[in-house]
Amino acid sequence: KRAFVDFGKVRHCLVFSLDKRVHPFEEGEKISFAPFKADLGKIEEGRHILYVYVQNTVVNRYIGTKDMEKMFDIPQRIDSDRKMLMSGLFGEIQLFEEEDLVCQGQR
After folding, report:
1. Is residue 47 one of the residues assigned to a domain?
2. What is the tally of structural domains in the chain?
3. In whole angstroms, what is the distance from residue 28 CA to residue 31 CA?
4. Does residue 78 belong to any structural domain of this protein?
5. pTM for this predicted structure
6. For residue 3, what are the CA distances in angstroms to 23, 46, 61, 83, 101?
7. Largest Cα–Cα distance of the chain, in whole Å?
8. pLDDT tens digits, 80-93
């Protein structure tokens, strides 16, 4: 049977792989836009590891640290100006088999 994964709510993008630890910038499958769902293909019954790397937005790197401001010579701002953007993996990751999707009419 084919397996599918639904990562739910993600900000802003993610890289994943099944049963193989990967370097998130060089390998793995990248999902950059909603819906954050993927076809895992046919997998054998048994234990598997799903590796998920959620990538933050670069804006938070600049907003969030004074070190980055110094490194890139970014003018200092008032602290109340420093609002981080929502970033991360929110909610549950759900796995489905092909027959589950057919029953729900989502195929």
Report:
1. yes
2. 1
3. 10
4. no
5. 0.71
6. 23, 13, 35, 38, 10
7. 56
8. 566 778 888 998 99
